[in-house]
Amino acid sequence: MKRLVEELVKGLLEARYAVALTGAGVSTDSGIPDFRSPGSGLWRHVNPMQVASIEGFFADPVRFYEFWCWRFAKLSSAVPNITHRLLAELEERGILRAVITQNIDDLHRKAGSKRVLEAHGNFTRGRCVACRKLYAIEEIFVKVERAGLPRCDDCGQLLKPDVVLFGELLPPSFEEAMAEVERSDLLWVLGTSLEVYPVAGLVPQAKQEGAKVFIVNREPTPFDGIADLVIHSELAPVMERVRLSLR
Q1: For the chain, how many structural domains are there in total?
Q2: Is the pLDDT of residue 102 over 80?
Q3: Among 47, 50, 101, 137, which residue's CB has the most CB atoms within a 10 Å radius?
């Protein structure tokens, strides 16, 4: 571990344009469960196509909100952990240029990261599916509690959290993410299984563009074989070593 962390830090310091790509594993230390871990993943007892797809949302919005409301409320109370804080510090020091994240929990921004590209949206807001009026997630919570379903004040149509569900196109920020990867000479992947596309495709894109790829994840990923550095570990101990090495 010591040698690998030293190599990771050396790569970060030598990089001209380092970019991070983060997934659900970054936020588990903040008490937010990931999706696929045995025993604790969100999908262990539910079909994601029923509660996390755009088809499922429109087919049964009541069930959608029954599943997500308390989970979104938990996100509201979560606080950044060492990984979020260190990435923000690295950006402030000019070592890291951007964070591309699959997470919707807003913790990178809470930690102080400025250049955050949210490939799957942000849970803190929602929109009307018809007129696109914007609402804070707290307003949506109140509407669900009072009426069972949140509807737009202006047109009466359903409100949907501003997150990307299965079957939806990714937001414009993903195009920005692709441009950042093209510009980078180091892509640092943290806490993601790299099983969800098109975000997972950023890794081979980086490699094809000539960037180094560093992966830190608890489990093996499909792209370990093309990575320049792989550390299979929980994130917190690795990030603590990185922080100490940078001081």
Answers
A1: 2
A2: yes
A3: 101
Summarised one tens digit per residue, pLDDT across range 15-69 is: 999 999 999 999 999 988 765 544 444 555 667 677 789 999 999 999 899 888 8
Helix axes 137-147, 61-77, angle to 10 degrees: 130
Tell me which of 144, 163, 182 is where a domain ends.
163
Structural contact between residues 227 and 243, judged by C-beta atoms closer than 8 angstroms: no
The predicted-structure confidence for 129-141, as pLDDT tens digits, reads as follows 999 999 999 999 8
Residue 231, helix vs strand vs coil: strand
Residues 89 and 73 in one domain: no
219 within 8 A of 234, measured Cβ to Cβ: no
Dihedral (Cα; 103, 117, 59, 67), 10-degree rounding? 20
CA-to-CA distance for 80 and 30, rounded, in angstroms?
Answer: 6
Cβ atoms 96, 113 nearer than 8 A: no
Letter string b/e over residues 211-222, b meaning 16 or more CB atoms within 10 A of that residue's CB: bbbbbbbbeebe
Count other C-beta atoms under 10 Å from residue 176's C-beta.
15
Catalytic residues: 120
Whether residues 128 and 238 share a domain: the answer is no
Q: What domain range is 241 assigned to?
A: 1-31+80-120+170-247
Q: Are 62 and 176 within one domain?
A: no
